C-alpha cells in the first residue's frame, strides 16, 4: 500500500464466505491467485478501446456473497484478520486489498473498490478511486501532485468551486499559486508553464458554464513536453469524451451529476495511473488516506447499479439537447451548444467524441441581462413546467440556473468577463422525462409569454 507496486484496486474473489488466512492467500490456486498476478483490470489496461459502454460491459462483474447477481454491500468500518502477524504486514504494505486484506474503510473498502473499477473501465485508465464529493476528488488529486511553493496552470473557465480553491484557498493554506489562461490560446498555455515549478495543467473537457471545448490531445502534448501532469475534469461529458484516451494523465468527475443521474447523491472520483491512485492511498503521504474524503459503501453500491445504464441516459440527454438547441437557434435565440456547426469548437469536439453519444447534455441560452434570464427561468418553471430552477446537472428533469449569479458567483466581474460568462447566461441541463415534443411545447409557450410581456422583444 505504501509503494507503487501495491495492487490496490484489484481484490480477488466473489467467494467471501469465510475469512482467508495469509497462508491460504499465499498458497491458494484459485481465481484469487490468478487475479493478483496483475494489478490492472483487463479492460482498463488494454490498448484495445471500443467505446465506454463496451469497456464497462467487459469489466469484471462482482457477484454477491451468496451468488446474488448484484454485489454485496461491505458496510464494515473495520476488518478482522485470522492471524496476529497479519496486521503488521498490512500496515507495512506487504499485504493489501489486492489479496483481499483490508484494514479500515477510510483506506480501502471492497464495495467502493468495485465502483472504482467500473470508473476506471469507463474512463480507460489503469485505476480509479471514488470519493465523497467531486470537490474532494479535485482537491485531493491536486494536493497529491502539487506541493508548497509549486504552481498550477488552469483554464480561466472553471466551475466556481474549483476556481475558488485555486484562487483563494491554495495560496492561503498551501502556498500553491495558479496562473489562469485562455485554454484555447496554446501559446499562452505553453508560456504560462514554468518548467520545474509548474506541476499540473488543469482544465475541463467541456467547460462550466460556457461549454467551450478543450483541445485535449494538443494540451496534453504541451503539458507532457513541459513535464507537467495533465488533469481534466470530465463531469460535463461522461461517455461523450474519454480524456485519458486523448492523452490526459488524470480524469476527475463529480459523480453527483450525470453518472448518478438522480440528484440524490454527492460523490466524486479520481481516474488515472495506478501509481497515482496508490500514492493517494499511502498510509503516510496519501491525500485521500489522510484527508479522509471517504465514500460510504452504501453509496458506492447505489452508484454501481446506475452506471450500466449511463450510456442510454447520456444518449437521450444529448439527443434532446441537440434538438432543442437547433430549434432555439431557429427561433432567433442566442444559443451555445457544441453540437451546433457555428460553435467555435464544433469540429474539434467532433474529432474527439466517442461515436454515437452526441455532443453533450447541456446547452446555454444567453438572454443578455440577468433580469431577462430570471424572467425566462421563472416562466419555464412556474408557468409551463419545462424544468426546475436549480444548480447541478445530469438529472432526469431539466435544471436551469443563471450561472453568473449562482455556480460561477465565486468569480469577480472581471473574471466572468474573461471567462465569457454573460450576466444573462442561462445554463440548462436537459432532462429526458416526458416526451421530447411535450417538453418543447412547454418551452415555446414560456417564450411566447415572455415576448408578449415585452421583456423579450422581437425573437429576431
TrEMBL record:
A GO-annotated cellular component: cytoplasm
Keyword line: Pyridoxal phosphate
Protein name: Methionine gamma-lyase
Molecular function GO terms recorded: carbon-sulfur lyase activity; pyridoxal phosphate binding
Species this chain originates from: Rubus argutus (Southern blackberry)
UniProt record, GO biological process: transsulfuration
Family the entry assigns: Belongs to the trans-sulfuration enzymes family.
Chain spans, region Disordered: 1-29
Keyword Signal: no
Protein origin, superkingdom: Eukaryota
A Pfam family reported for this protein in Swiss-Prot or TrEMBL: Cys_Met_Meta_PP
Cofactors: pyridoxal 5'-phosphate
